[in-house]
Amino acid sequence: MNSDLDRLQPYPFEKLAVLKAGVQPPSHLEHISLGIGEPKHPAPPFVLEVMADNLSALSNYPTTKGMPELRQAIAGWCERRFELAAGSVDSERNVLPVNGTREAIFAFTQAAVERKPDALVLTPNPFYQIYEGAAYLAGAEPYYLNCLADNGFIPDYDAIPTEVWQRCQLLFVCSPGNPTGAVHDIDTLKQLIALADEHDFIICSDECYSELYPDEHNKPAGLLQACAELGRQDFARCIVFHSLSKRSNLPGMRSGFIAGDAALLEPFLLYRTYHGCSMPIQHQLASIAAWNEEGHVLENRSQYRHKFEAVLRVLQPVMEVKQSDASFYLWAKTPIADDEFAKGLFEQQNLTVLPGRYLAREIDGVNPGEGYVRMALVATVSECVEAAERIRHYIESL
């Protein structure tokens, strides 16, 4: 077997299972999970109808590149959402449908990294675990960029040594961030594009939470948007990842896209052709319907906004926590060690949250996830409020 498999760490939820093993929560309380970022809002009925009406497509092999109509729907959505000029996203060259961002992030890293002894993949820390695993299995070393409160949970890009930039092959940007919900502003994205030009690396911007924001007048900026403002019509060295999982409550459909530099997407399409990961036709047709409709997304944001307001009213008097810039996560500071907090909360209140240390690595003696827990406000409003009240009771009992 590939020896790089031995470098993979247990997934955060495996660590969480070990933490909770042998703990007996109170049986009179129903379990509430804020641990996994799996959307629980209902899937849009019109999307389900399209899928159900096209099950006969199971008789056909889908193409790796996807249906032209899907690529056109995606290109149009990008242009509308990020205020790009009409026709600036070429559906033939700048877009590929993928089976969710997780699959695409991993696969693109395998195709893009040139196996050199000094190859680096730069990743935020804390981070989405696929960034690290993809780097290891592509033959590169992950280089962790601590995301600390004093910099708004955005990496301090100015502090990265020149020699690190010179070895960088891929830079992962997660905006809005998982787990912190922090958003890169457009000037920072432009700064990163300039660094990519100077040092010849690829920017991979994971934007799968971009549609979950609290202020309708303050949408998170995107990497393609930064390219457009710089006049970079070719999106050189820039790749973005988007998904219907969070935006449209369709995590089980595994539908998203990768878009950007055509010079990078062309060889990636070749890789995907061999990889054998084309999207089922009925999923493509359902995806077209989802990308072309915004009403359900507006309602989705409204539900999350209501949950954040209700939960924060309960927690803020006893806990250091505030509204995240975007996403459905709260990144909350704990009054005791984060893992002990999560364990005690499960034991006393039958409630699951994810210790921040499980989402990060210790760098220079600092684990930037320590002292925080990630709460995914994916349950119903009533369950989220009940969860907040249980957390408050637990904190007040310490």
Features:
Aminotransferase_I/II_large, 14% strand, DapC_beta/gammaproteobac, 2 domains, globular, 398 residues, single chain, three-stranded antiparallel β-sheet, 39% helix, alpha/beta, Aspartate Aminotransferase, domain 2
What is the CATH class designation of the largest domain? Alpha Beta
Biggest β-sheet: count, sense, barrel?
7 strands, mixed
Helix run count:
14
Instruction: Work out the strand percent.
Output: 5-15%
Supply the helix-strand structural class. alpha/beta
Which consecutive residue ranges, at least 5 long each, have pLDDT under 50? none
Number of domains: 2
Strand arrangement, major sheet: 2-8-7-6-5-3-4
Itemize the secondary structure elements and their pairings.
Elements (H helix, E strand, L loop, with lengths): L11 H9 L11 E2 L11 H8 L15 H14 L13 E4 L2 H12 L7 E6 L4 H8 L3 E6 L15 H6 E7 L11 H14 L2 E5 L16 H7 L8 E6 H4 L8 E5 L1 H14 L5 H11 L3 H21 L13 E5 L4 H12 L1 E2 L1 E2 L16 E5 L4 H17 L1
Helix pairs in contact: 2-11, 3-11, 4-5, 4-10, 7-8, 12-14
Protein name: Succinyldiaminopimelate transaminase
EC number: 2.6.1.17
Pfam families: Aminotran_1_2 (PF00155)
Task: Tell me about this structure.
Its EC number is 2.6.1.17. Its cofactor is pyridoxal 5'-phosphate. It comes from Marinobacterium marinum. InterPro entries: Aminotransferase_I/II_large (IPR004839), DapC_beta/gammaproteobac (IPR019878), LL-DAP_aminotransferase (IPR050881), PyrdxlP-dep_Trfase (IPR015424), PyrdxlP-dep_Trfase_major (IPR015421), PyrdxlP-dep_Trfase_small (IPR015422). The protein is an alpha/beta fold. The chain has 2 domains: 3-42 and 296-397, Alpha-Beta Complex (Aspartate Aminotransferase, domain 1), CATH 3.90.1150; 59-294, Aspartate Aminotransferase, domain 2. 39% of the residues lie in helices and 14% in strands. The chain contains 14 helices and 12 strands. The protein has helices at 12-20, 45-52, 68-81, 101-112, 130-137, 162-167, 186-199, 223-229, 244-247, 262-275, 281-291, 295-315, 338-349, 381-397, and strands at 32-33, 95-98, 120-125, 141-146, 168-174, 202-206, 238-243, 256-260, 329-333, 351-352, 354-355, 372-376. Strands 2-8-7-6-5-3-4 form a 7-stranded mixed beta sheet, with helices on both faces. Strands 9-12-11 form a 3-stranded antiparallel beta sheet. Strands 1-10 form a two-stranded parallel ribbon. The longest helix has 21 residues, at 295-315. It is globular and about 60 Å long.
